[in-house]
Every structure is written in C-alpha cells, then in structure tokens.
Design brief:
two-stranded antiparallel sheet, mainly alpha
C-alpha cells in the first residue's frame, strides 16, 4: 500500500506590489489600520473643536456666567450633531428621492 505525502493546505503568502517596493499582505493591513486610526483621531479632534467653539459662543451669549460649563458643552454637542445630521440628509435627499421615483410603479393605460 502506497501512502502519498499530503500537500500542505497552507499557502505561502505572496507579496503584494504596493508603491515602489513589495510588501506582504500583513504589512499592508497594518498600514491600512494605522491610516484608519489616524483618520478617526482627526475626525474626533475636529468634532471636539467644533463642539468647543459652539460651547464658547453659547457661553458668550449668556455673558460667560460661571457654573454652566457642562450645560454649554451638552447644548453645543446637540447643536453640532443636529447640524451634521441635517448636512447628511441634504446630501442623501436626492438619492432617496431618485430611488423612490424608480420604485414607484407608473400606471400606463
């Protein structure tokens, strides 16, 4: 009885061409993760800056009276979030309207 040697199911990772050199898939994934993390940090910092600016204007309207800092911050968060949602809806509205128009059956007689 002859026994065949089984081939390894594992395949060697082929290097992926990327940029000027050749890198492995794992290195590319690591770079992508780092880039995504950096972008998320930038978005978070940008959001916090907009909230802080809005909180400043809210405090300014009431004369910078002390003791209302948290209320100002929470009101600013709500205002910035609301503005972002309205911006997204404004961008999505034409797409939503077009998809509704395509899905609505027309009556042809």
């Amino acid at each position: 009885m002859k026994v065949r040697a089984q081939k390894s199911v594992r395949r060697a990772r082929k290097p992926a061409a990327f940029g000027n050199g050749v890198i492995t898939q794992a290195e590319r994934d690591k770079d992508v993760r780092q880039l995504m993390t950096a972008e998320a940090k930038d978005r978070t910092a940008d959001l916090q800056s907009r909230i802080a600016l809005q909180a400043y204007f809210i405090a300014e309207k009431r004369g910078f009276e002390p003791g209302h800092e948290l209320d100002d911050w929470l009101a600013a968060e709500a205002a910035v979030t609301r503005a972002e949602q309205q911006s997204r809806m404004t961008k999505l509205m034409p797409i939503i309207q077009a998809s509704i128009a395509c899905a609505t059956p027309t009556s042809e007689q």
